[in-house]
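Weekly structure sync, notes
Attendees: PL (lead), two postdocs, one rotation student
Agenda item 3: pending single-chain targets
PL asked that the sequence for the first pending target be pasted directly into the notes so everyone works from the same version. It is reproduced below exactly as submitted, 327 residues in total.
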Amino acid sequence: MKLLVTGGAGYIGSVVAAQLVEEGHDVTALDDLSTGHADAVPSGARFVEGSITEARGLLSEGFDGVLHFAAKSLVGESVEKPALYWSHNLGGTLALLDAMRETGVNRLVFSSTAATYGEPPLDGTRSRAILETDPTRPTNPYGASKLAVDTTLTAFAGLYGLAAVSLRYFNVAGAYGRFRERHAVETHLIPNILKVALGERESVSVFGDDYPTADGTCVRDYVHVADLARAHLLALDACTAGTHEIFNLGSGTGFSVKEVVDVCRQVTGHEIPTVAGPRRPGDPAVLVASSDKIQRELGWKPGRASLETIVADAWAACQTPESGPAV
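Predicted structure, written out during the meeting:
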């Protein structure tokens, strides 16, 4: 198939693009490089620098589908600059959907987020894994803007016959060959911990140690980026005209910040000092997603599910020159 990957120079988009090329697809990566890197686009994929708001001309070349990753994705920034997130995440996607409709491109896989659910109620110090049928109550503009896109996809499926699948996940980690996390401002926990082990920073900040969890720190689900990418390929095949399906992607098991730090210490052999800080605005205490539906209906199974494997792959990649500098 001839496929467009928006945000294809970013972390997840580049891994998906790489797997699509490996599967023999004709892949074009569209990215404005505001957070992505041109050298992250895999060999064998065509790279076009530009915004999704200007995708109409590109789509007119004829594509079989779009995998949509281009978005703003920082929770804290979304609280500080909500208009930026509504403009990019919802406004940009609306422009993309209009361009798809006008050019006859009918298949879309959307990178959504489990942040659309907000904070689930706690059962003791843990909450059960979130299901697709659970209420959506986002606690920050990032999650709200992604939920608005999901709502829009449902409408476009009903009105225009769009074939769409949304994948809701968070805390993607690990590496796929040379493809790893490379953010100008790094907010994700595992790469920041590994920066300490690499000697690039003195300590890692723990944002809040007074949450209603077993050790007082946030609990999150972690999914290996290679497993996540495979789910997007399965979702692409599952797109059906006139329907919008939503699938969660997660391990079903959460790990606290302190638990993640401990695993990173074991993998790297470094002490990794931590410094406690205040909570970040909009951060729920616990977020764990169930992937039972996608496993049951699409046959997806995570092959690299353990936190030790996820950290080990990330650690190996950030020490490999071929992966490029983390800028």
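Discussion points:
- The first helix runs from residue 11 to 22.
- The chain is about 35% helix and 15% strand.
Action: rotation student to compare against the earlier draft before next sync.
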